[in-house]
Write a structure and sequence with these properties.
The chain is α+β, with helices and mostly antiparallel strands. The chain is 47% helix and 15% strand. Strands 3-2-1-6-5-4-7 form a 7-stranded antiparallel sheet, sandwiched between helices. A 4-stranded antiparallel sheet has the order 8-9-10-11. A hairpin with a 6-residue loop joins strand 8 and strand 9. The longest helix is centred in the C-terminal third of the chain and has 24 residues.
Length: 426
């Protein structure tokens, strides 16, 4: 995860850049913006809403992920759709850089986000200069240094993924028609030697001591070959496998190659229900807290339903394309009612979970009032994380907030209950 473009859901690792991990109501705001301007919700906006909302779910699924997105040419410029019109793609990176700089001014710990946003702004300009058949290669590791200095909770709130140490390999390839296909692949562990091997294969030497943040600034251009992204991911795994002494795929010792993005899109009925219900909310008169609660109930219910289905190999209740063709309205209504109950029950189950998060073993309480990042981690986190045995370390001084506290120690980390900072244990 990184900092550049809040608007660009097709770049899931760059999707969350503002003050929060993810805003469930943002999609409603985008749709209502269309309604105010044009009286209708534009298909381009619905596509963006899908990309951003669904990337949150796909990243939570404990599988590798690959996404492919095509940047189109409009008026001779690479463009993305925003607020009812096509805008230069580079402008989104400028907005992301400004947002990251503003955030760093308020909280110096976020300085690394501004640094990454600057590198990604440069990446945006380089895309314009590609020739057909050329590819730009970028490695975006997990924020190792920020994690060590500021703890799990802070980096998670910035959109990074502790636990998996999730990083990305990004390959952007110029097509004959001038468009650019951006392929983003996740890799677990964010092993710096393995990332260095990927960049070396692309013709770029990584200086010794390069940080995870500064690695984003190394952006070689290569002549593209067939399925270059997968070739580069294979290089990452070859190096990592040699280090670990065990075979990996996408940085994972589990060799399950199912793409989380594809797994998610097999849930056709739930996703169609989610879209339809989101549109209903956009058309409703709900505002403020009422709208926030309604959208959170829908979003968290969908998250939990998808997690339950995938974990238990539960098939969709119906292929939505088939359901749309059902002759009688009552058949559609019956299916809709089944989905509504499944999502509602999934929300209730999430509300009743052990309520224990990774953040220092704290209780999440009412999920409608909790931080979205905490709820996402609670729903998609592993049972081992939630049930990890804890012990209290009495009267220790936290190196982050300097307070004397009773720290919480688990097998993997020590956490301060005052500032929520965490340190990994070797």
């Amino acid at each position: 995860m990184s900092t550049a473009v809040a608007e660009l859901g097709f770049r899931p690792e760059l999707a969350r850049t503002k003050e929060e991990f993810y805003n469930p109501v943002a999609s409603i705001d985008m749709m209502r913006g269309d309604l105010r301007r044009t009286g209708a919700i534009l298909p381009e906006t619905l596509k963006r809403v899908d990309d951003e909302d669904l990337s949150m779910i796909a990243e939570g699924i404990d599988r590798p992920m690959r996404t492919d997105f095509r940047l189109e040419i409009h008026d001779g410029i690479l463009s993305y759709f925003d607020k009812g019109e096509w805008r230069p793609y580079v402008a989104a990176f400028v907005n992301g850089l400004r947002a990251a700089e503003a955030k760093a001014e308020k909280d110096p710990r976020a300085g690394f986000l501004a640094r990454r946003a600057y590198y990604e702004w440069q990446e945006g300009y380089k895309l314009e200069g590609l020739e057909p058949g050329q590819s730009l290669v970028v490695c975006s590791p997990f924020a190792h240094e920020a994690y060590l200095h500021h703890g799990r909770r802070f980096v998670m709130e910035q959109g990074f993924w502790p636990g998996r140490d999730l990083g990305f390999i990004r390959v952007s390839t110029k097509q004959k028609d001038g468009s650019v296909v951006i392929t983003s692949l996740t890799v677990d562990r964010s092993d710096m030697d393995s990332f260095s091997g990927v960049l070396d294969a692309a013709g770029a030497k990584v200086p010794e001591g390069t940080t995870a943040d500064d690695m984003v600034d190394i952006q070689p251009v290569v002549n593209s070959v067939e399925d270059l992204p997968e070739q580069l991911r294979n290089i990452y795994d070859q190096i990592l496998s040699a280090k670990l002494g065990i075979e990996t795929y996408a940085g994972r010792t589990s060799l399950d190659k199912q793409n989380s993005w594809q797994l998610l899109h097999q849930q056709t009925d739930l996703l169609a229900y989610y879209k339809d219900e989101s549109i209903k909310l956009a058309l409703s008169e709900l505002n403020g807290k009422e709208l926030e609660i309604a959208k959170k109930k829908l979003t968290y219910g969908i998250w939990a339903a998808v997690k339950r289905r995938i974990d238990n190999n539960i098939a969709p209740q119906a292929l939505w394309s088939d359901a749309r063709d059902v002759r009688y309205v009552e058949d559609i209504t019956a299916l809709y009612n089944l989905l509504a109950e499944e999502v509602s029950e999934s929300f209730r189950s999430a509300q009743q979970l052990g309520e224990v998060l990774l953040a220092c073993g704290g209780s999440i309480g009412n999920i409608l009032e909790a931080a979205v990042a905490d709820v996402h981690k609670m729903i998609f986190g592993k049972k081992d994380d939630k049930n990890e045995k804890k012990e209290i370390m009495k009267c220790v001084t936290c190196p982050f907030c300097k307070k004397t506290v009773d720290a919480i120690k688990t097998k993997s980390k020590i956490c301060c209950p005052n500032c929520k900072a965490e340190s990994k244990l070797n």
